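Structure tokens please, single chain.
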Amino acid sequence: MVIDDFYKILIILLAYLIGSIPTSVWIGKLFYGIDVRDYGSGNAGATNAMRTLGAKAGILVFIIDMLKGFTAVKLLYFTDFYIPETGLFVNFQLYLGLAAMIGHIFPVLADFRGGKGVATLSGVVFAIHPYGALFVLLVWVVTLLIFGYVSLSSMIAGFTFPAVLIFLYRTEYPSLVIFAFILAILMLFTHQKNIERLIHGKEKKIGIKEKWKARRNSENLIL
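Here you go.
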């Protein structure tokens, strides 16, 4: 029993270390010679990487950060701790997902200065409840297209997840709903500065509509 507990602690620590991989920091330093945390919003997330390093780097960071959360949760399938898809199995998946999220926000591999956890959270949610994740992703995209704020879209999507679990899928795991609410609150915590900028009208939009209009205008000029 003691040995099993020891291995469980080890796998949770491994999930934390996976989450701690500072993707944007390493990509920025390796390929661009800069630390993304010294620019823009000052965090090590995909959005700041996109603004600082460009779209290609930002997308790459988002994919890798998402895979961090997904991989951390799937670690449990390589163990024989619990029977898959049981309540205890799902509960431990939640521990691993939370460990990965904490690792991303407070990465030991990058002086505990990480990102806001949106991409890693996406990977965790996809690993645990893929259908709910797709619904949340749809909400995120629609909100982004309407308002143009990544931060606002992320927070709304975060609070959509527990609602989807309760009212749409009627999940049989209360711990999953509690976990979803914890993540939603965590999103508010990591977006405090964004909330302040939104209130004061200083939050930057990503400019999807403007870019689309500019592209259409350029195409019309060519025609």
